[in-house]
Amino acid sequence: MTKNLPAIACVIGALLLTACVASCGSSGTTSTSTTAPVLADTSSGTSSAMRNITSLELSKQMSPGWNLGNSLEATPDETAWGNAATTQALMDGVKAAGFKTVRIPAAWKAHADANDNIDPAWMARVKQVVDYARNAGLVVVVNVHWDGGWMQPTFAQQATANARLKKFWTQIGNAFNDYDDHLLFAGTNEVMVDGDYTKPTAEYCSVQKGFNQTFVDAVRATGGNNARRHLVVQAYNTGIDWAVDCNATLPTDIVASRLFIEVHYYDPFDFTINDKSEIWQWGSIATDPSATETWANEPWVDAQFQKMKAGFVDKGVPVLLGEYAAMLRSDHDPAGTYRTYWDKVITKSAIQHGLVPVYWDNGYPANHQMGLFDRASGAQSFPDVIGAIVGAAQ
Predict the structure, then answer these.
(1) What is the pTM of this model?
(2) Active-site residue set
(3) Residue 21, helix vs strand vs coil
(4) Which of 105, 236, 300, 380 could form a disulfide with 242 if both were Cys (CB 3.0 to 4.6 A apart)?
(5) What is the DSSP string of 27-61?
(6) Per-residue model confidence as pLDDT tens digits over 121-133
């Protein structure tokens, strides 16, 4: 999600919101982190079998996940959107709560010069935050987030966007080359033509798929551990239906079984993130039809995730559900009954269908927000919601 625009309805769940809502085990060798989960290490000292863990195998060890939203993608700096600077205590708190993965949305263009050279100080800060997460024992996903909207999937902007994407991922890849399989790269975020939430045209689909290929090629070209790093490519606008229609064929890769595909989920919009809506109940437990959507209940969730299972997971391609969340509606539901239930159902269905659910936390614990942790201390702001998510992942 991105922060800078007013809320815009989108039934496939890729949304732009204001700043106050969103930035709208197995056997193996552990890393050097003292509390790292046991995953395959890609360092030269490990066996070939350990280095050859597939993305599908890795995905089974990553749930549930959590987003460090509205922090490193904030511009012009990390605290500009109101969240405290990220600390080791926060990552320790996320790990202690039961999460296994952290997705770190990051802006890069805002920290690069006119020739797209990334500021070394910014690269060092991103590495520091990644290290906090790794020290806590979390699997990490780093991406190029909305970042000002320069990645428009049109023929007119294709060459410029691809050149910038290649340059950024070459620099990011070189900076993190010695990190092991606990670090994944995700090439883009919610790529779409600004304001157009309809089904992608052949042009849009072709250019967006080209961005995915550029990302994969750029990272692989940096060699070392990046030659086999697990990479995450996105569906058009991270929509499930668009994934099936537009992205069924993944980028060409020099190594087999090292790609994820990413989608997001915010259905139904009026319940999850539309702060102007009076829809505040959801699902089979709803009691007031006037406060409940007529679509996107439990069967819809299962059907959508089944599309990803049949189209990707069953074919050996893991799916990262990179964002999902329902906002707090304390004005209608002080106990948070319905949002907690929604979060639980989405988490459980995702895992049952082989998806890795990564909750979107925008950092704010107030009404109409999605924050679960105190960003300064790492303390849990909503243990009931956290418990529902983590419990559903068991």
Answers:
(1) 0.90
(2) 190, 323
(3) coil
(4) 236
(5) SS---SSTT-------STTS-HHHHT--HHHHHTT
(6) 999 999 999 999 9
